[in-house]
Amino acid sequence: MAKIKKKTTKTMLSRQDEIKSITHTVSDYYQAYRQQANVALAVVALVLIIVMVYSLVQAANEKKSGQLFAAAYDAYDPGGGAPPNYPVALQRFQDVVKQYGGTTNGAIAEFYIGNTYANMGQPGTALKEYEAFTKKHTGETFLLGMVYQRMGYAYLTMGKGDEAIKAFSKAETLVGTGTATLELARLYDRSGNSQEALKKYKAISDALPSSAWASEARAKLPPPDLGQSQPAQPGAAAK
Description:
Number of helices: 9
Distance between the termini: 118 Å
Structural class: mainly alpha
Helix content: over 70%
Strand content: under 5%
């Protein structure tokens, strides 16, 4: 019995030594890499602070840019039957872009700068603004679709039907069946490309059956085949 007790004590001491050894190893490891760990923690904390500050600044900028944009749009489309003041609207939209170009309202203001030039009878200048937008805001899918759509109208104003088709096609790809699809159908129809025109009219009729566009589209489409048999010709011999 005495021998067994001695063996158990020795085993317990061995385990204590092992635990102490592991503890010292962890402590030594921490001491050796403490500086690097502290630096890493500091970097993470700094990144979090930067992100928080950026978010707060961005939110404040969006609010300020929204107020400027609203003032610009009031001049662009005052409502109540009042005439638009395009020169004032243009200057205000440009101020939004100049001061808050990195905000969503700044991007929308860039779009409206092109629209304002178009409404002022300057489609060439409008196209330059639209083209600049397509290069700068590649991630703004919906706005890009709207820009390409307005580019299509600008090309039509300048008598460039082929370029208009390209622009409307890009708009349709980005935002789906809609205004651009109808304009493509009309352009194909006028150019004599009845097959493509019918495809676009059918797309509108199927995707937007309750819209006014669908009424126009259905008027262009052939009557539906109801699967009825053709009436027998008079005098045809029965077989």
